[in-house]
Amino acid sequence: MSDVLLQLAATISARRSATADSSYTRQLLDAGPARCAKKLGEEAIETVIAGTSEGDEQLKAEAADLIYHLLVLLESRGVALNDVLAVLDKRQGVSGLKEKAERSKG
């Protein structure tokens, strides 16, 4: 599963060298992190709506859009997906409540 995410992240990174008139990803990256974050927020809202009031197929589509836009935001900030995956890996086996409490202390 993470192979698909890693491949998508690599494709998004490669789009930096595409022409803006041929690549939506390039247009987002050129607009900068603030625009990428705004678009991620819009997709998050659409995912919430799909999750609460639409069918499974719409939820799947919106979730895919959300993940794509998260990866674009990470690329726009120069944050590697592998670094995010490492954080998730570190959290494996740790209670979500405990992990949240630890973050609150720091």
Automatic annotation (TrEMBL):
One Gene Ontology biological process: L-histidine biosynthetic process
Record-level GO cellular component terms: cytoplasm
Alphabetical list of CDD domains matching this protein: NTP-PPase_HisIE_like (cd11534)
SUPFAM superfamilies: all-alpha NTP pyrophosphatases
Highest taxon of source: Bacteria
Functional pathway: Amino-acid biosynthesis; L-histidine biosynthesis; L-histidine from 5-phospho-alpha-D-ribose 1-diphosphate: step 2/9
Signal peptide positions on this chain: none
Recorded catalytic activity of this chain's protein: 1-(5-phospho-beta-D-ribosyl)-ATP + H2O = 1-(5-phospho-beta-D-ribosyl)-5'-AMP + diphosphate + H(+)
Pfam families reported in the protein's UniProt record: PRA-PH
GO molecular function: ATP binding; phosphoribosyl-ATP diphosphatase activity
Keyword vocabulary terms for this entry: Amino-acid biosynthesis, ATP-binding, Cytoplasm, Histidine biosynthesis, Hydrolase, Nucleotide-binding
Alphabetized InterPro entries for the sequence: HisE, PRib-ATP_PPHydrolase-like
Keyword hit for Cytoplasm: yes
Keyword presence, Repressor: no
Main location: cytoplasm
Subcellular location field: Cytoplasm
EC code(s) of this entry: 3.6.1.31
Cited HAMAP family: HisE
Protein family according to the UniProt entry: Belongs to the PRA-PH family.
The protein, known as: Phosphoribosyl-ATP pyrophosphatase
Annotated source species: Hyphomicrobium album
